[in-house]
Design goal:
The chain has 107 residues and is α/β, with parallel strands linked by helices. It has a 3-stranded parallel beta sheet, covered by helices on one side. It starts with 6 loop residues before the first strand and ends with a helix. The protein is 43% helix and 12% strand.
Length: 107
């Protein structure tokens, strides 16, 4: 399955496993929404490294432990076209259950 042109919201992608997953998806052509609670420097580094791989990237600082921030993250995605600092729009998002994603990756 090709990930080229698909978009993934990768939580915790400013460091550790989430960062590695974001890079791996970007290497396969997937656009990335970087998310995490890292420092401004960590966030900038993650964004820059993903951009180097030639895919589109944006950042959302939502804390996934806070329901209102998750809702705000979704709302910000809807408003992306109106914000010139964001490169991805909601129309590019398809939320995929983890089990279905795992099956597709194994194909």
């Amino acid at each position: 399955m090709s990930l080229k042109g698909k978009t993934a919201v990768v939580t915790g992608s400013t460091s550790g496993i989430g960062y590695a997953i974001a890079l791996a998806l970007a290497k396969d052509g997937c656009n990335i929404v970087v998310n995490g609670l890292g420092t401004e420097q960590d966030n900038a580094k993650a964004i820059a490294e993903v951009k180097k791989l030639g895919t589109r990237v944006t950042f959302d600082p939502a804390n996934m432990l806070r329901h209102n921030q998750i809702a705000d993250c979704a709302e910000h995605r809807r408003d992306a076209d109106a914000d010139s600092n964001r490169e991805l729009s909601t129309a590019e998002f398809k939320f995929l259950p983890v089990a279905e994603f795992a099956e597709k990756v194994q194909e």
